[in-house]
Amino acid sequence: MGMLGAVKRVAVESLTAVLVRGWSLVSPPTVVAERERLAPSDHLQRAMNLIMPLHTPNIVARATLSQLLFRATSEVFAGLDNVGTIHFARFDIVDGNLCMFSVYDGDFAAYIRDFVSSIGNVFDDIVRQVKDPPRLPVREHVDEFIEWVRARDAFQMPESPVDLLTRDVETIPRDTIVALHRNPNVQLGIYRAYPGFSAAQIRDGLSIGW
Amino acid sequence: MDLDLAELQGNILRGYGRAYPTVRHLVLRVVDATAARRALGSMTDGDRATPDVTAADRSPREAGYPWCLNVGFTWAGLRALGLPPRSLGSFPPEFRAGMGARARRLGDVGTSAPEHWVAGLGDADRVHALVTVHGHQRADVVGVSEQVVALEGGAAFAPLPGGPLDGATFTGTDAARRVHFGYRDGISQPRFEGVHDEAEIPGRPFTPLGAVLLGQPSLLPGITWRVPEPEGELGANGTFDAFRVLGQDVAGFEAFLHAQGDRLGCDPEEVAAKVCGRWRNGAPLTLAPTRAEADAFDHADLNRFAYREGDGDGRRCPIGSHIRRTNPRDAHIVQRGTNDVRTLVRRGMPFGPPYDPAVAEDPPVARGLLGNFVCASLSAQFEAMQADWLNLGLLDPRITGMNDPLVGANDGATSTAAWTTAAGDDVVVHGLPRFVHTLGGAYCFLPSLPALRWIAAGRWGRTRR
Description:
The structure holds 2 protein chains of 2 kinds.
Chain A: H1 3-26, E1 45-53, H2 59-71, H3 73-83, E2 86-94, E3 97-105, H4 108-127, H5 142-152, E4 155-156, H6 162-165, H7 174-182, E5 186-187, H8 199-205
Parallel strand pairs in A: 4-5
Antiparallel strand pairs in A: 1-3, 2-3
Helix pairs in contact in A: 1-7, 3-4, 4-5
Chain B: E1 22-30, H1 33-42, H2 60-63, E2 67-73, H3 75-80, H4 85-88, H5 93-97, H6 103-106, E3 129-135, H7 138-150, E4 157-159, E5 165-168, E6 191-192, E7 206-207, H8 231-235, E8 239-248, H9 250-264, H10 268-276, H11 291-295, H12 308-311, H13 322-326, E9 345-351, E10 368-375, H14 378-390, E11 416-420, E12 426-430, E13 436-446, H15 449-457
Helix pairs in contact in B: 1-15, 9-10
């Protein structure tokens, strides 16, 4: 990169920093789940990418969580069956973060609430291992817990990013800039093998009960 | 029951009834917080010489009241009244956001989007209070409404342009029970423990008070809703109201019934029954699968039915029909154990004249429903019902992807409905249009009477605003 390019890059970064600060002050928090989506199937299957920094990211914590989840296997499966709208859910530990990734159908709050109603005690045990845990037991503070989860859910880039494709990266919409600034964790893309079908429809089609 | 009904607003646990066939909803902005709180004090002092909030402890008809009054506040309204940040922050996020901000979730898109809403309801920052007056006579509600606006010399509340919103039941003994589209309405309201007796709303199981009242055990096992703070002074025994102004395309609906009747070779009334789940006289398809049975139906049995035994496959009452989505009763559904937890109290009254096919309407006449959907959790009850069950059909894989044929956010280009005819044929209707359009709405908090007095007093300590 020549001198002119470097100057331009610095100028763009400075301008972006100023704009982000300004937008952060004047913009309300972006509610990720409320964005308009274009594909009909997107109203059905949704993703959650919950990133929770571990309180003490050491080998003991990793072993404890592994043990906790192993012991709770039956309860988690019971929760999946009761909630009925979950395609898959999995826990990972990535770089000191406990992550819960899932694909579910329909409303985010209903998904979390129904899960808490079914196996809130398992959530209690799990979130004790992470930094800044929610108020426990989560069953008694379910509205707060839903917001706690939402705040730790990765920002999801629009699935049909018309604005992003037609603009220079320096001029992408301010809501997107603010969201990217606020949340370092981003879901870039999601690709569905069976778009538009619910978990119950798949189970029904496979005759394994729903 | 450890509950003093004198502390609750009326029309929540029990409706005012047909003695009050006319209603006016005032959509108000708080002009001055101090004046508005003084006005609220006047509205809760028990003196009915001026507008006064009606309590739930006595029948207003038996008490001889010519009018009844309710008041609710949006989150913007509570903020305009000067509630401290700690209280404001303790309300659930969907209420803080307001109905307009939840439009996509609710299916309020296209012509139903908030930018098209009437009576100022799309101007969310200025919609602060909803005052509702029911009356024996139109003059009663007009007079009391004018008094409300005139409180504190007009310095308390200002009506938003485009209002008020007036409704009235249809005249005539049978007609009074019906709404636009011609269905008998209000059949399966919740029956509350300790409020209704065995003879009222026969066939309905008792519903716990936590379906609507904050501070009571919720309908979801083990789940507790957050009560707005301070709990004792403000939140306890309050409830939330999803107020909706719903326009109904009656001409389009009647045309649809006849077109489908012709196409399927059946009575248009059967089509009306299949989209609703009840015949227009209220008889449920599960018990009365033919029109002859519906005409002879004993109306004491309107709620004495379930689905699992005898109609589990929905051949009588379609799985996608309106009443089966809103109240799946004992049916096997995807979200196990939630059959009853999305229960709503529904209060409503039609607006606009009854549709008469013999009268040409140019321009079209506005008509529909002024509806209040009351619940303890807007997210867990109203929104979950609207987003996942009425639209999307997530409660049963056989209807997932289809919206409610009667009230859903359908699109004539892509929407479908399916049912089994009385003759036993499985049919699919393509190009299902949208018959109900959202013309406006607001999420309101209906405080208890002590909470209204607490707000009126404005003594929330030294909390910084």
